[in-house]
Amino acid sequence: MGEFIIKMPDVGEGVAEAELVEWHVKPGDPVREDMVLAAVMTDKATVEIPSPVSGKVLWLGADIGDTVAVKAPLVRIEVAGEGGEPPPDSVPEALAEAVLEEPVAVSAPTAKAAPKPEKAEPSQPPAPAAREAHDISKKPLASPAVRLRAKESGVDLRQVIGTGPAGRITHEDLDLFISRGAEPVPPQVGLARKTAVEEIKITGLRRRIAEKMSLSTSRIPHITYVEEVDTTALEELRATMNRDRKPDQPKLTILPFLMRALVKAVAEQPGVNATFDDHAGIIHRHAAVHIGIATQTPAGLTVPVVRHAEARTIWDCAAELNRLAEAARSGTATRDELTGSTITISSLGALGGIASTPVINHPEVAIIGVNKIAIRPVWDGTQFVPRKIMNLSSSFDHRVIDGWDAATFVQRLKTLLETPALIFVEG
């Protein structure tokens, strides 16, 4: 018997290390060739690492949450023969396609898809003692792929007994639960004191989000400007366009109109469509308008980017927005689709709220926050009339954007949205 050492592969150009976010095996487990061993994260995405050999796991080189350098020993596997190390590029070529787990603005490079391991036959149901000890009040441990399958199957993972490391729920556990007719665990009844304290280690993309937010708020002095916008005419136009749209055209929300309004507004104030390299003290004003759209996904917040909005019609903006949002929510968004924004829109309108204080997506200098549209009485000079009013809550980097310029920019957006015909005027 020999020993085969798997090292942390090179998961992308310029990437020197990655964070270990998930183990699929533990010491003593048998593994098959192409079986997924672990998941690592770099730039807000996870990449699964398959085994190039069959054998038995002897040793794991890191704990979940650890940062592992490229080429550092990751797994040792006992194999038949002399063993050794993988040849230089063998592991990277076998990496599974990057799967988004949680977001802020970037994703791991897309790699070639690895063959998926064969599904194991459903094992026997857990012993009654294990079932009785199953605590449905605890947050279930499962990979993003398992969570997505459970959601699509309508399965509450809290009712599934995990047989993986630390009680992690595997695909086989989910298959077994579904095959048994998804028999629920009897809920606890009656009133009882609760004394449990759950410790949740901040790892993976959630840690990246925390780092990104800390970076933004610690380096950028924010100024937030809130303005009311009368969207009555815009909503009437939107309803008409949706009613008359062609079968191949997407349904319009307010966001494509705001995106086109942004294009016109930044043409007059290019300083807002910029990124600030605060280390070098250089502002980069961009001719291209790459609009980041803050999107909530099952794994967390991501910011897919609609590139070159200045060259898109309102229908193009809507179609691309829908495509990117679906890719982000399903975990298939690529690195290029999650990086390079020059200005960001954050919309909480569906949840309500009068105003918000959005955090700028570093290193950008502005973010536009959309709040709920509500019917309010507005004085027209002779009487109160019902109008559809929406607040825009916009934050700016006060180091490079003065309050006057911020207000002027938002007022221009207000004019364009309140007179939506202007959005379609060229030149």
The tally of strands reads 20
Strand content: 25-35%
Q: What topology, given as strand order, has the largest sheet?
A: 11-20-19-18-14-17
Structural class: alpha+beta
Secondary-structure element series: EEEEEEEEEHEHHHHEHHEEEEEEHEEEH
Low-pLDDT parts are 87-123, 127-132
Radius of gyration: 26 Å
* Average pLDDT rating: 83
Number of helices: 9
The dominant shape is elongated
Q: Main β-sheet, in a few words?
A: 6 strands, mixed
Distance between the termini: 74 Å
**What share of the residues lie within helices?**
25-40%
Molecular structure report:
Belongs to the 2-oxoacid dehydrogenase family. Forms a 24-polypeptide structural core with octahedral symmetry. Its cofactor is (R)-lipoate. Its EC number is 2.3.1.-. This is Dihydrolipoamide acetyltransferase component of pyruvate dehydrogenase complex. With 427 residues, the chain is an alpha+beta fold. It has nine helices and 20 strands. The strands form five sheets. A six-stranded mixed beta sheet has the order 11-20-19-18-14-17, covered by helices on one side. Strands 3-6-8-1-9 form a five-stranded mixed beta sheet, with no helix packed on it. Strands 7-2-4-5-10 form a five-stranded antiparallel beta sheet. A hairpin with a 4-residue loop joins strand 12 (274-277) and strand 13. The longest helix is centred in the last third of the chain and has 17 residues, at 314-330. It is elongated. Mean pLDDT is 83; it is low at 87-123 and 127-132.
